[in-house]
Amino acid sequence: MDHRNSRPAARQPAAGQPAASAALSRAADAVADRIHRRRWAILAVLVVSLIAIVLDNTVLNVALKTIAEPKPAGLGASQSQLEWGINSYTLVFAGLLFTFGVIGDRIGRKKMLMFGMAAFGVFSLITAYSRNPDQLIFARAAMGLGAAAVMPQTLSIISNVFDPGERPRPSASGPPPSASAWPSARSWAGCCWPTSGGAASS
Hints:
By secondary structure, the chain is mainly α. It has a domain at about 40-165 and about 175-185. The protein has helices spanning about 20-35, 40-55, 65-70, 80-105, 110-130, 135-160, 175-200.
């Protein structure tokens, strides 16, 4: 049976169920149907968010030469500061990934996703206009905090928005689009973006 375009039947109130509970049940069904109709737009937002945080894991590599140059052309960063500029993002990101996943389950995945993207955007701007290596390192670490708030929410939201038939499963015909979009976006951001960025800068 194909579940890709099907939705579970609306819950029917039991006999004698209070009118308020029946109305609440109908409202919940209406919200679920509205989310289901918008699931592909939601997936697009999640994919864009994922690409942003994954590509920033390696994008600084293409600017290391400029950052190491003496002021005013660069920031005059030492070799140790260059390493911390790259690794501060990864360390904070990996260290807080599980924590923000749990917090998102408790306070709401949408709220955590919006907080993470807002923090990521603000500190990306601060990173771009850093005046010295220390400011760059701390801004990159704060970007890792925002990225850690985003990453676990992307998978959690996909698993809640899409029906079981649209999620990853063994199939001779290949995975459904919702199953392949997330890993494809992650692979593209991790592999292709540094290459294209290096070509553009050279």
